Structure formats: structure tokens, C-alpha cells
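Q: Could you fold this chain for me?
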Amino acid sequence: MDLYLQFGHGMMSMSEELLDSWGTGIVILSPRDLTLTQMTGYATRIASKGGRVVVDPQFFIPRSDHDRLTSHSFWPSNYQTALFSRSEIVQMLTILRDDYNTPLNSDFFILPGLMSSLINDDWYAYNNILIEEAQKLITDKDIYIAICISKEAASDEDSIHQIIEYLDTWDIAGCYIIAEPTTNEYLVSDPNWMVNLLDLTTGIKHQHKKVIVGYTNHQMLLFSLSKVDAIASGNWLNVRNFNTSRFNSPEDGMSRRSKWYYCPQALSEYQIPFLDMANRVGILPNLRTDNSFGSSYSDILFTPGTQPSTVNYTERHSFQHYLHCLRYQARLSVKPTYSLTKEGLKIQLETARQLTESFTRNGITGRARDFANVVDYNLSALAVYDNLRGLVQTNNWATI
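A: Sure. Below is the predicted structure, expressed as C-alpha cells.
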């Protein structure tokens, strides 16, 4: 399972540095954060570093009032559901092909999917027209459908199964999945939501389609169980989980300027003052990222004899460290067999539980980003999914 970079505010030079270090990678471009001119220059620089780009049209909310997003040429000027005809879909796809995907040399073509609460015949009809016309217009790239579902749809087992059935009728290369969490929490405390998404991605993978899950964070290493091809994440929280407010009235995503350190073995993030406390009680080395991760971005926090809050650890370091470590974890998460993948994930979760409990006893907490808050939900989702899908995954792992 790979990690794609979900482009967000302020990610341009930071992601270039990451790709320069990695030598490869895919960035999902955001019309909400970039003009077409910016995309063009950025795509050229990414290609020079061995990276690739794809364009997410972010057409989730057609009546969006976000000026930077709706000013793009592919966005319909007067969207009305009842009047959104086949000809208008063709016009949108043609602009996305001629002005965006072809000049930017996108790795694959993401179709403009709507956010949906109801998975019904209307949902199928729109996407069916979209796919039919895309297959006529786009002959040089793989086509991925964007499936963006509301928290109501993501929580409904029947809706999940209906999506899988509809998808089985379409001859496309892959799916780009975006799901609204059931709560506004950064880390989701809803095992049913997790199991439904695991079920959805598993059903799609068994149709031999590629699966990319957008707007995720380290909690979704859980998707290794369904063997998705990639998860996508970025710098600010608004590109680490899906929130529709990001696509409405503009906001800069920087209301909270605290710097965080991601402790991958604890699956938790800590503000720097808590690292000072860890240093004071003598357990700071226990939070240090193992050298095997190959991340030097946070090394300065663990300089012997130095208080973490006194060093020049920046927001940029924080974001780069997080994404570098998450990529490392994602790439190691899928094992040669389902059983090994499940056991590896379970060990990771149990280790996080033990470490966070130990840190908490010593006064070190990640607050809302402490994985202790959700580890039981992840373990529950793992157990339920294994009960529902484990045998099928075991028997088909090599061919998924």
C-alpha cells in the first residue's frame, strides 16, 4: 500500500522536497488550492524529481461558494441538478482533458464525482453517463471514478453494498474513495464506519479495480486489510480527513498553529511542550522515531541535553516527518498473506496501546491526537472485518 500526497495549503515546496528525497511518488492536485498556472509549473517540477500528478476535480459540492475552486474553467457556471445534461458533462470532461489532464501529463484521469447521501438510481444514472462519455473522450489514460459519500451513506451497510453492485457494471481502471467521517473528530471513533469502508474497498478490489482512498491519516493504515493500492494524506488536518467546509467559504486551514511531533510507534502526535515533560521525567528517548524509518526531520527534538521546545523544529519539519513516516508505515503494512497483514496490524495497534498508556501514566498525552482515544475502535473494526471477510481474503490474497 502506497502513500499519495493529498495537496493542501502550503504544500508546494514541502512536497517537492519529499519527492526529491523519495525519488518517486504521486501528488493529488487540488484546484481549491492551486490555479491552473500554478499546477502547470508545479507538475513540471514534480516530474523532474521522478514524481507524477493527478487532478482531483473536487466537484463534490457543485454549488460550492469557494471562489478559488469555482473559478476553474471546468466548473459549470450555473449548476442545476435537473438541468445538468449529458452535453454539460461532456463539456466538463473535455475541459478537464484538454486544459488539465493532458497538459499536466496526469498519471490517470479522475472523474468529477458528486458527494452523495443516497445511493440510488439517480446516483447510478449520473455516474453511468459520466463513465460512458469519459470512455469516448479519454483514450490515453486509465479512468478512475470518484466515489464521495456522506457520513449517512458511509454508515449504511445497504448503501455500501449497492455501490459495489453498481461498480461491477462499469469497465473502469479504478476508484478514488472519499468518505465523510461520522463525527468531526480527527481520529474516528466509529468502528461501523471503518468496517463499512473496509467492506467497500474489499468489494472493489475483488472486481480487480485499483483503489485509492483520499483524505486519510495514520488511523487508516487499517486499509491494509483490504489491500488498497494507496491512501492519501497531507499537511493540515483538513487534508487528513474529509470535511465539506473545506470546499465552501474560504478558510486558510491554519487556525491552530501548534507544532506536533508524530510518534509512529505510538500512532500518536504530541505537542512540543509534552516532549519537554517527557524529557523532564526521563522518557523522551521512548518517543523517538526508530532509525529504520529514515526520517531525519525530527532528529533535532532529541538532541541530548537540549529541551525540545528550544530547538528550531518548524511546522514544515512536523509535516514532512509525519508524511515520511506514514509512507514508510503504509508501504510495510501489506504482507505476503492476509494472516500476516492482520497480525502485523494487530501488533501495531497493541503496541500503540501499551505505549500510550505508559506515556499517559507519566503525564504525556496527545490530547485529541492521542491514539489511546481510538485504539479499541480500530481493534473492534479489525475483529469484525476478519469475521466477515477474513476467509475470503485469505483465499484470494495473492490475486487481489
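A (continued): The CA atoms of residues 23 and 50 lie 5 Å apart.
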